[in-house]
Amino acid sequence: MCNNPLLKDPYQQLDDYIDSIPYKKENLILILHRAQEIFGYLPDKVQWHIAQKLDLPSAKIYGVVSFYSFFTMKPRGKHVANVCMGTACFVRGSEKLQKEVESQLGIKTGQTTEDQLFSLDSVRCIGACGLAPVMTVDGKVHGRLETTADIKQALAKYRPEGTPEEAKGSNSNI
Amino acid sequence: MDIQLKINDIPLTVPAGMSILDAARTINIDIPTLCYLNLHEMRLNNHIASCRVCVVEVEGRRNLAPACSTPVFDGMVVKTDTQRAVLGRRTMVELLLSDHPKSCLTCPKNLDCDLQALAADLGVRNITYEGEESEFAIDKSSLAIIRDPNKCIRCRRCETMCNDVQTVGVYSAVGRGFETVVKTAFDLPLHDTSCTFCGQCVAVCPTGALMELDQVDKVWKALNDPTRYVVVETAPAVRVALGEGFGLEPGTIVTGKMVAALRRLGFDRVFDTEFGADVTIMEEATELIHRIEHGGRLPILTSCCPAWVKFFEHQFPDLLDIPSTCKSPHQMLGVLSKSYYAETYGIDPQKITVVSIMPCIAKKYEAARPELGQDPVTPDVDIVITTRELSRMLREAGIHFDHLKEEDFDHPLGESTGAAVVFGTTGGVIEAALRTAYEWLTGKPLENVEFEPLRGMDGIKEAVIPIGKRDFRIAVTHGLGNARTILEKIQSGESHYDAIEIMACPGGCIGGGGQPYHHGNLEILEARANAIYQEDRSKPLRKSHENPAVLKLYRDYIGEPYGEKAHRLLHTSFTKRPKI
Amino acid sequence: MKLKDTGELNELKGQSLALLKNRRISSPLTTLEALGKPRHIMVCGGTGCHASDSPEIAALLKEELNQRGLSDQVEVLQTGCFGFCEKGPILEIHPDNIMYVQVSTTDVADIVEEHFIQGKQVERLLYVDPSSEQRLASDFPFYHSQLRIALRNCSYIAPEDIREYIAADGYQALAKVLFNMSPASVIEEIKKSGLRGRGGGGFPTGVKWELTGQGEATQRYIICNADEGDPGAFMDRSILEGDPHSVLEAMLIAGSAIGATHGFIYIRAEYPLAIHRLEISINQAREYGLLGEKILGSDFSFDVDIKYGAGAFVCGEETALIHSIEGARGEPSVKPPFPAQEGLWGKPTCVNNVETFANIPPIILRGSDWFAGIGTEKSKGTKVFALAGKVNNVGLVEVPMGTTLRQIIFDIGGGIKNHKSFKAAQTGGPSGGCIPTKYLDTPIDYESLISIGSMMGSGGLIVMDDSDCMVNIAKFFLEFTVDESCGRCTACRVGTKRLHEILTKITEGKGTLDDLDSLEQLSKIIKDTSLCGLGQSAPNPILSTIEYFKDEYLAHIVDKSCPAGVCKSLVKYKITDKCKGCTLCTKHCPANCISGSVKEPHVIDEERCLKCGVCMEKCRFGAIVHH
Ligand SMILES: Cc1cc2nc3c(=O)[nH]c(=O)nc-3n(C[C@H](O)[C@H](O)[C@H](O)COP(=O)(O)O)c2cc1C
Ligand code: SF4
Ligand code: SF4
Ligand code: SF4
Ligand code: SF4
Ligand code: SF4
Ligand code: SF4
Ligand code: SF4
Ligand code: SF4
Ligand code: FES
Ligand code: FES
Ligand code: FES
């Protein structure tokens, strides 16, 4: 038997998790969090699987998943960038930051780059308002992103080595 | 405990816990509602307070209160007719309409729509706040129900009905904010879900968002095709509800007028599904006795409700061997029209079109099930239209329904007994079966044919009926949620019954999804049930096995009930289906 | 090691006091004398500083100290937020009473060398007070008008060690409640203190406890609302990161007072650090027998579970929160029934905010009179604000109720950034309003904020200057509510969408005076008809900006201009006679709409201009302006 959790069938992993918690239907949201961790997103098939396992109508699961913005039904890129659109960041220019990140990545908020490297989303205040405007990439906070170069630099860290370094561009304010 | 309050300066005393809405109704003040629906007998209580068209002013409260879901308290002072309240209500309707097609003239719900009526009552003359309108694809996937989410007002009645009463769980509110709408899982076409097509969601939808698939044109086409021999059959529940479409009192029995009207429409033969019902009893009672005598699996479950059949196929695939294999009565009548009748009268069955007039939406779907036909090109029933569609068709044809002279069904497939009539209401199928099984098993005549414990609106009815040496444990349920309760008990071995009647619609077929809308008034269902029993009592014959036309059918054509030919024509099989 | 009774708790406290013995005396609860070594470096581990590498700094410090053989004399600890996030990462050295600000990983070696080996302050890391231009080692003006009750332990103790909390009088209030007070007297004490809910509504906490405790019930629940959805607020997470045990202790107290044996903390999944610290605290509390069966040898049993939100602002609303815990869509439901009557799984449930809870132990220990002596007539105690926006000192501040906005923004906040002028302060987040200059001196409490068209909300306080367009701000908040509306009721689902559409029209210069009327009228109707607090308060940002900044609306509508120069469609770019004809702008204009020959003044074709502003940024002569 293979005991490496990384190699275990993801559905089996999910079932093991569900079996391990005391209440099941009541913990639907927790289970969805775990499922998203395992699969990276929540496609119909996974939702249906959970529905069967918990003996809940699929429509209910779908209703819940579609309600919470944390859950995604589309696969995400390798890195997830979130521009903070909280009030503090907004008044310190996060709208421009968002536009600039969109243009640097060539996608709109809510989309994923063609090479599956980045997904772009927005969040509402991550508690680092002192560093506004901020963006997180994979949970890591990048603050005071005030120029195009700042942003290029921040994103460059997540681009694989050898890709054309774009950060040398101008240092204009965005 | 009673409390005192004032509504529009009128003092009144009502029990504590009552809503403002109900309190106002006691003094004949009506407050409009849209989302609220309390069908107590069906255990449907949709009080999500989402539409906000019932808002009223309550003294001392910062904002307006939804009358449907705000309980009264002692000393409460309510004003339902202030400018503030009326403006609030009208604005809600305007906001709803701002995200709604303004196409009433071509909407199937035209003149029967709660939203439309409300807009008229509240004097909506323009839509002050216009803006983006949602756009959804119309779901025409199924052969029974058309979903047009563009007309959905998010009242969630369908969701409550399907989840709480029917426990099928096809719908959920999906998305958030302006995008929220009631959808199926993963936005699947209804056809690909576990929907049973019971049509109860259609019955409670206040707008045209959920409608039956309209097949009136197909009927017109058949009637106008000189090469077709068009036979029509009508279910028992239709004759006690059709009159409502023409302004008659609920519960008016219009059997004779209905037959006359159908003849005027040009049907070649007007048959009665009740004949099929009598045949069903011959088969089902025989099947029951056969199972008892051969140690077959009990309980036997009735199978004349296609929504119920689809329900157990999806939800209880491991119990597929306990329902009776009998086809439903209209399918039996259909197949007999195209076999026995066709052969007897020398008509080419390929030329016969069978049209069923049903209280039921699921029967549209049922008629198209591939196994329900003698072969792929000869379905038992070709077209199913509902009671509502028939009344529309009669209006289209300009028939003054109320002034028609009563006429009789055609022979031989128009003859029936009282046992067949009671099929139309909950408990009826089992009652009819008992009338026959009793006499067959005991060989003695049954004096009192009315089984009171099996009647009425209780969700689950049980009775132990001694027949000969054996006590028969009978259960009757209606509404799929109740059916689920009983099946789970059977699965767990908690309950032991011999026979169970199950109907998907609360009240049975009189409350079918294709009947004239009850608009929340369940007294209408009661009136229809009473009419059914009245019709039963007026029949000279009240036991299926006494129907001479049926006896002749077996003698001349089928042979033994539950025999080889019967199996081929009158029985069917079931399919495991996934639960979505 | 389970604590079997109060004696053992006190014994542990006695032992643990050594941990705190040489800390700055900042806790209002403990009096300690500085006793010498070992010295402590408290590195801020709040989200702001965390984001600017404070964990790396702490790790490097440890390594450096180790290499220099100082690790047994100097200990490095991670705390919660110091409040002064603007200058993060911050660290404080005890008992030296010295704070270093804006520390970076490259400063670590200097700190060890200069501070600990040479024994002198690292001057360049000291805070420069902008008014006196002096370098200060501690006691910044930022802290002067503050009173830290809810934040009493934040930055003072290391939150990941329960012994530090116990040393700082932790769980003493619980012991008092369990052994020296009856449930009724606890409720009475909270009622008398005048504590009101800090989650926004301001409902008297004692009364809520009383209502939840009433009547017969087989089970009751305590819920801590840590959803904190206000975009631009981080008070609750800071408390959970900096002093998680204070919340657990308060939940225990509430549980014993109303007869609940189970509690839930509903927290946003986006708060990983707070979740992490809570998990540690819950495990430690269980280990010490402060959660679980028969706590401290009493008859009282209580346990706490964490429940995660999944990104829905409306789940901060208590009925929605309850539905979310139950595993459903987080839609609010009508009240009554209130959660106190029928809450989680139909049982009486008391929902309180994080900050509300954080106030409970001090009230129990120091008495309701002490607490009621702070604040204004109807609003007692202090309030934590997340001060942010165009203010010099962005951070977390706690002030007595009744402090004026001016004190918060100018004395504590250090005034407006970049020497611009104050335009408005936004409180209450998407439910609140914008407060203009004329109300800067209003003493802040629940009632006064409502009377000037805003509300306390959970404590977000965003400062705006003259470069902010108030119509655009209103639109920003409406965009938020449209996004976050649960979609259940007509008023909010369709209504807020329509409000946003009208605002968009106005910011695009397509608005009419009728639109302004519609905006006001519809706003009032939505407030009047919405099902839950979200819809009922969503129009507040519109109504307050119309009231105080009507001229800006009129400028957009009548003059088709945006005075702050924010609304793109209304901005016009123009080249002035400062132009040297360098042609730089022409090269960068994406619309190719700038013309002119070399060394001649250039012109912009307004028709084709995309208003991207690139030309203005590029021009080195400041020749391009917008209006
Ligand atoms: C839309 C909406 C969002 C809310 N968000 C929060 C929140 O994030 N945190 C919170 O403590 N209370 C929030 N509340 C208030 C809660 O409903 C509730 O009143 C509060 O948690 C009660 O605790 P308190 O009495 O201690 O303030 C929100 C209310 C509404 C209407
Ligand atoms: S649903 Fe009602 S209001 Fe809407 S178009 Fe149809 S009839 Fe008109
Ligand atoms: S009455 Fe006038 S508006 Fe109405 S259908 Fe006739 S022509 Fe048209
Ligand atoms: S037809 Fe019946 S089963 Fe299908 S969605 Fe409607 S209520 Fe549910
Ligand atoms: S489909 Fe009909 S019943 Fe269902 S929510 Fe929409 S309007 Fe209501
Ligand atoms: S109960 Fe009757 S009307 Fe309802 S689905 Fe079954 S057969 Fe059709
Ligand atoms: S006001 Fe908004 S958030 Fe609240 S119930 Fe209505 S739609 Fe949902
Ligand atoms: S604002 Fe942009 S589009 Fe307009 S002139 Fe300048 S560079 Fe060109
Ligand atoms: S960049 Fe400035 S100075 Fe140069 S041409 Fe453009 S406006 Fe003139
Ligand atoms: S608003 Fe962006 S971090 Fe707070
Ligand atoms: S009927 Fe009361 S809110 Fe819809
Ligand atoms: S996070 Fe470090 S001071 Fe606020």
Automatic annotation (TrEMBL), chain A:
SUPFAM superfamilies registered for this protein in UniProt: Thioredoxin-like (SSF52833)
Keywords attached to this entry: 2Fe-2S, Iron, Iron-sulfur, Metal-binding
InterPro entries in UniProt: NADP_DH_HndA-like (IPR028431), NuoE-like (IPR002023), NuoE_dom (IPR042128), NuoE_N (IPR041921), Thioredoxin-like_sf (IPR036249)
Pfam family, one: 2Fe-2S_thioredx
Cofactor remark from the record: Binds 1 [2Fe-2S] cluster.
Keyword presence, Protein transport: no
Binding residues annotated for [2Fe-2S] cluster, in chain numbering: C84, C89, C125, C129
Cofactor section: [2Fe-2S] cluster
Lineage: superkingdom: Bacteria
GO molecular function, one term: 2 iron, 2 sulfur cluster binding
Family the entry assigns: Belongs to the complex I 24 kDa subunit family.
Name under which the protein is recorded: NADH-quinone oxidoreductase subunit E
The species this protein was found in: Desulfosporosinus hippei DSM 8344
TrEMBL record, chain B:
Domain 4Fe-4S His(Cys)3-ligated-type stretches: 84-123
SUPFAM superfamilies to which the protein is assigned, alphabetical: 2Fe-2S ferredoxin-like (SSF54292), 4Fe-4S ferredoxins (SSF54862), Fe-only hydrogenase (SSF53920)
Keywords from the UniProt entry: 4Fe-4S, Iron, Iron-sulfur, Metal-binding, Repeat
InterPro entries on file: 2Fe-2S_ferredoxin-like_sf, 2Fe-2S_ferredoxin-type, 4Fe4S_Fe-S-bd, 4Fe4S_Fe_S_CS, Cytosolic_Fe-S_CAF, Fe_hydrogenase, Fe_hydrogenase_lsu_C, Fe_hydrogenase_ssu
Gene3D superfamilies: 3.10.20.740, 3.30.70.20, 3.40.50.1780, Fe-only Hydrogenase (Larger Subunit), Chain L, domain 3, Iron hydrogenase, small subunit
Entry annotated with the keyword 4Fe-4S: yes
Classification via PANTHER family: NITRATE, FORMATE, IRON DEHYDROGENASE
Name of this protein: NADH-quinone oxidoreductase subunit G
Gene source species: Desulfosporosinus hippei DSM 8344
Lineage: Bacteria, Bacillati, Bacillota, Clostridia, Eubacteriales
UniProtKB/TrEMBL annotation, chain C:
Ranges of residues in domain 4Fe-4S ferredoxin-type: 571-599, 600-627
Keyword Iron-sulfur: yes
CDD domains: TRX_Fd_family
Key words, A-Z: 4Fe-4S, Iron, Iron-sulfur, Metal-binding
SUPFAM superfamilies: 4Fe-4S ferredoxins (SSF54862), Nqo1 FMN-binding domain-like (SSF142019), Nqo1 middle domain-like (SSF142984), Nqo1C-terminal domain-like (SSF140490), Thioredoxin-like (SSF52833)
Gene Ontology MF: a single term: metal ion binding
PROSITE patterns named in the record: 4FE4S_FER_2
SMART domains the UniProt entry points to: NADH_4Fe-4S (SM00928)
Database matches in InterPro entries: 4Fe4S_Fe-S-bd, Nuo51_FMN-bd, Nuo51_FMN-bd_sf, Nuop51_4Fe4S-bd, Nuop51_4Fe4S-bd_sf, Thioredoxin-like_sf
Similarity comment: family membership: Belongs to the complex I 51 kDa subunit family.
PANTHER family assigned: NADH-QUINONE OXIDOREDUCTASE SUBUNIT F
Stated name of the protein: NADH-quinone oxidoreductase subunit F/NADP-reducing hydrogenase subunit HndC
Taxonomic source organism: Desulfosporosinus hippei DSM 8344
Native organism taxonomy: Bacteria, Bacillati, Bacillota, Clostridia, Eubacteriales
